[in-house]
Amino acid sequence: MSEGIVKTAIFPVAGLGTRFLPATKATPKELLPVIDTPLIQYAINEARDAGVERMIFVSHPSKSAIERHVLDDKDLRATLRERGKARLARELKEAAIDEDLHDVMFVMQDEPLGLGHAVLCARDHVLPGPVAVILPDDLILGPKGCLSEMIAAYPTCDSGHLVAAMDVPRDEVSSYGVLSVLSRAGRMIKANGMVEKPSPEKSPSTLAVVGRYILDGSIFDALARQAPGVGGEIQLTDAIAAGIAESGLSGFEFSGQRFDCGSKQGMLAAELHLAGQDPAFDAVLDRFFRTQSSPTAA
Question: Does pTM top 0.70 for this prediction?
Answer without folding.
Answer: yes
